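Lecture notes, part 5. Sequence design as translation. It can be helpful to think of inverse folding as translation between two languages: the language of shapes and the language of residues. The source text, in structure tokens, appears below.
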């Protein structure tokens, strides 16, 4: 099953002994989360959800993926000011990994935790968990995912500017 992501061109430079990509350390000052301090709390909340819901260690940073190209086209057009530093990756993920190792959530409802005022990163706010209850049929651009494991052999296409 296909997933898509935009990553720096050196994304594939670091892999573990099994061939899984190790993303560069998350740089909070350079991330899309930086301009919204509440978003850092949301990112910590998502990490807690990942630990609770996915049977993988959180021993490396998230890789954000999408089921379609909607947000990636947006990122190329508007979000990244210097897109030539990035590549557009298409992965063909085996069904087992797709279902078990990616925490899928509703992109629009992700803005609930993203815009929540976090007094404490461990703040568990009731109701945000609904972002993981996806309908059987979703619209274009509605679903995002996070994982810590994408294998370099699963790459089907790399598009550079």
């Amino acid at each position: 099953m296909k997933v898509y992501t935009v990553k720096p061109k050196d994304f594939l430079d670091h892999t573990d002994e099994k061939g899984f990509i190790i993303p560069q350390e998350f740089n909070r000052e350079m991330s899309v989360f930086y301009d919204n301090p509440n978003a850092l709390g949301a990112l910590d909340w998502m990490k807690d959800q990942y630990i609770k819901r996915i049977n993988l260690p959180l021993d490396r940073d998230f890789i954000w993926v999408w089921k379609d190209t909607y947000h990636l086209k947006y990122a190329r057009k508007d979000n990244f000011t210097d897109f030539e530093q990035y590549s557009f990756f298409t992965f063909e993920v085996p069904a087992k990994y797709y279902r078990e190792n990616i925490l899928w959530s509703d992109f629009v409802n992700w803005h609930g935790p993203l815009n929540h005022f976090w007094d404490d990163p461990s703040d568990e706010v009731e109701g945000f968990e609904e972002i993981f209850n996806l309908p059987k049929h979703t619209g274009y651009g509605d679903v995002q995912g996070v994982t810590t494991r994408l294998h370099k052999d699963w790459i089907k296409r790399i598009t550079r500017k």
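The translated text above is only one of many valid answers, since several sequences can fold into similar shapes. Strands lie at 2-8, 63-66, 86-92, 103-106, 143-147, 155-160.
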